[in-house]
Design a protein that fits this description.
Strand order of the largest sheet: 1-4-15-6-7-9-10
Order of helices and strands: EEEEEEEEEEEEEEEEH
Strand content: 35-45%
Mean pLDDT: 88
Shape: globular
Number of strands: 16
Low-confidence stretches: none
Helix content: under 10%
């Protein structure tokens, strides 16, 4: 939206279920977003309507939701699983890609093949990151990292690895911190589409 259309790279697919989603098979597919379309050095809100698929590898793996492509130091949002293929994601993490681990949101789990709205909010004045799942607050942590914003991408890390596997139904970025009421309203507006 707002003339910030992404470019599909490497065979991102489409599935018509639940009024449509883009599909990622973890081979080489991602979505390239316009240069500087996300300012991760100011107040922001990120919304991901996603459904991740199980991994087949018998070791710890990660799925990237958002990062940068071709350069380090982007905000990276990723799932982590300590038991690949076991049926659930064990954590949601933020990193300064290729540079520093920022933190893990405590208490977060997500079951494979289940659609969720993941909302991240940054209030820059306190350097606090907040996580909401399906409109409900989960946890927060403080990190003062700053980021490169030149080439954001959905579904891939800066190295072209840690690729996402699953469906992405919607992604939105706000250049302000939404209130709890607004976050709940966003969830309520689309939950019927997914039977939630």
């Amino acid at each position: 939206g707002n003339v910030n259309d992404g470019t599909l790279v490497g065979g991102v697919g489409y599935n018509s279920a639940n009024q449509g989603s883009l599909t990622f098979d973890r081979s080489n597919d991602y979505i390239s977003l316009p240069t500087n379309s996300i300012n991760s050095n100011a107040d922001l809100t990120l919304n991901f309507w996603v459904n991740h698929s199980p991994l087949s590898s018998p070791f710890t793996e990660v799925y990237t939701l958002l990062s940068g492509f071709s350069t380090n130091s982007h905000l990276q949002v990723r799932y982590n699983t300590t038991s690949a293929g076991s049926g659930s994601i064990s954590s949601l993490e933020l990193l300064k890609s290729g540079v520093a681990f920022m933190g893990t949101f405590s208490g977060f789990t997500s079951v494979n093949n289940t659609i969720n709205l993941i909302t991240l909010v940054l209030i820059k004045s306190t350097n606090t990151w907040y996580l909401y799942t399906n409109g409900t607050f989960g946890s927060s942590f403080v990190s003062s990292q700053t980021f490169t914003t030149s080439s954001p991408a959905l579904g891939s890390s800066v190295s072209g690895g840690e690729l996402f596997k699953g469906n992405m139904y919607s992604f939105s970025y706000y250049n302000r911190a939404l209130t709890t009421t607004e976050i709940t309203q966003n969830f309520d507006a689309l939950k019927g589409r997914f039977g939630l």
